């Protein structure tokens, strides 16, 4: 067997893609290894969202070039590939800057990896694929070879929203939804291989409209799969949160009371500059409707601070929205320029020290809300889906319906099952309890 090492950057969709690349290469004799030093092929599955993402990739490639040369001296060839969004955005530049790279493949073309390898071997050169054949990709990727207790399943890709700070429309392409029968077939395979929870993925997953189905109808069909206990989805856009999906959170018992609904800012001026296409009060009213349908739902979000032109008043509006909504948890970041996006050319870029101070203030507020939400569960009995053994001997880790990690002293036989747990205490990043 040959050894394959995939290093994954970024979001859950990249993790899903990495698993699919491993499935694609398994028929060629590749088995996974955690160590690049042992690998016959190394794939960097990259993300282009965060600051200096590309430079981090080039730095890693420099290290891998040294490893590749050392292996070559011993008579062993190591294939080096770059996949994902940095590959899509900078394919030619990667080849120019790092000649050690053999394969460059974008996120919509990785199903062509086997033929790319064959072509590069045949021509004694490199192969580069950065097209957008979304339909072809989903038709070509193989059925999953394995599954954990919780499994990712991509149902939608791409974005038509064109937020001014975001590179996704340029690296993932236009919005495209998979056919419902293909989604259901993959879900049944995952459940047959041990999944009890499926997390539906998409850049704008609640914009799903495969075969005339919306996300609510897809979740209803998934709920009919015997053995599937839980359904989640991420990431959502406020504009695509329709009445049917809100009602599904009330009516579908397998759809978990957890919703990641990024807002990015509480300032209307910043939302307009970001091209979010909604106002802060639109978001507040949407949250009210969601909570009217499912009062206990755990709301989470994304926030960007220091967007070009953000004033102290704009930032205060974000803090006020956080106070008004109350989040179970949230992700927050300093704005960073992404080359090729409209926001990168805007004037009034915010100084780094101001961005850092604002991020610190926002994160303290969000953390206090997270602790409040976790503390409110102490004393409750919650159904926990157990996923894996914990680091501490004799403990297993699972998650509540609200996605909170819970540690319990119990036997490993609980893995893959749902059991009631009485929550006793909170630590910094998890809950602890006993079997009820």
Can you walk through the features of this model?
The chain has four domains: 2-131, Methylthiotransferase, N-terminal domain (Rossmann fold); 143-150 and 170-255, tm_1862 like domain (pyruvate-formate lyase- activating enzyme); 257-376, Transcription Regulator spoIIAA (2-Layer Sandwich); 381-435, Nucleic acid-binding proteins (OB fold (Dihydrolipoamide Acetyltransferase, E2P)). Strands 2-1-3-4-5-6 form a six-stranded parallel beta sheet, with helices on both faces. Strands 15-16-17-19-18 form a five-stranded mixed beta barrel. By secondary structure, the protein is an alpha/beta fold. α8 packs parallel to α9 and α12 (312-325) packs parallel to α13. The protein contains 13 helices and 19 strands. It has helices spanning 12-25, 53-73, 85-97, 113-123, 134-140, 168-171, 180-192, 215-223, 243-251, 268-273, 280-293, 312-325, 352-375; strands spanning 2-8, 30-32, 41-46, 79-84, 103-105, 127-129, 150-154, 156-157, 176-177, 197-201, 230-234, 258-260, 298-305, 329-334, 381-389, 395-399, 405-409, 418-426, 431-435. The chain is globular and about 60 Å long.
